[in-house]
Amino acid sequence: MPARPVSGWWQLAVAALLPLNLELLLSLVAPAGALAERREELYGFLSLLALLLVLLTRRLAWLRPYRRALGLAAFVYGVYHGWLAVQHVLQGDPSNLLFLNQATQASYWAGIVALAGLLPLALTSFSGLQRRMGRGWKRLHRAGPWLTLLSALHTAWAGVHFGFTPFKWTSAALLAVSLAMFFLRRKPTSTPFPQELT
Asked: Are the CB atoms for 92 and 86 separated by under 8 Å?
């Protein structure tokens, strides 16, 4: 008898607790404030990793039961990453973005658009809304892979240890992996698992 699928609300609660658990772990392994400048990057990487794993669920059947949880975790990590970026990079004032150079602004806007695009996907990752929206739900969630690519571009462009100026091999590797996962994905076969954030 197949296991009963875990509700979307439960998975959302677990995703929301992930940053708290990670913060507690970081507080145990490092002095207070020691990782302040790295936490924002860390959560951005975790968000992108979760999005890439969502793409992988199309090929790895054992990951499919975790698809919704991964998508919701990607969104929650992305929100926390954005909040930390405002606090630590923009000194608590989002309008400071306008004083950065144009290339840096563009890289930040790529991340902002990707996160804003994930919001409706996260809000509709529940079985009841999926049924009510019908085919409109599938059309909406087809934006997932494109938002993953945009997130990868933002990470490679804006990340402190990456950056296109100079164009470092880490940026090229990150984008190459993301593009490969995007283009090598195939249409999923019929499956009992929901296709959130695809």
From this structure: yes
Do 150 and 106 contact (CB within 8 A), yes or no? no
Which pTM was predicted?
A: 0.74
> Helices in 32-168 by DSSP H: which ranges?
36-56, 67-84, 102-123, 127-133, 135-141, 144-158
Q: Is the peptide bond before 31 cis (omega within 30 degrees of 0)?
A: no
> pLDDT tens, 170-188?
666 677 777 777 776 655 5
Whether 12 contacts 123, CB under 8 Å? no
Q: Is 196 helix (H, G, I), strand (E, B) or coil?
A: coil
DSSP annotation of 198: -
**For residue 85, what is the DSSP state?**
I
Asked whether the beta carbons of 39 and 160 are under 8 A apart, the reply is: no
Determine the pLDDT at residue 194: 45
Closest to 195 measured CA to CA, from 43, 8, 3, 1: 8
Furthest C-alpha separation in the chain = 59
In whole angstroms, give the CA distance from residue 24 to residue 115.
25
pLDDT band at 112 (very low <50, low <70, confident <90, very high): very high
With CA atoms as reference, report the closest residue to 70 among 105, 106, 46, 39.
46
Q: Where are the domains of the chain?
A: 8-183
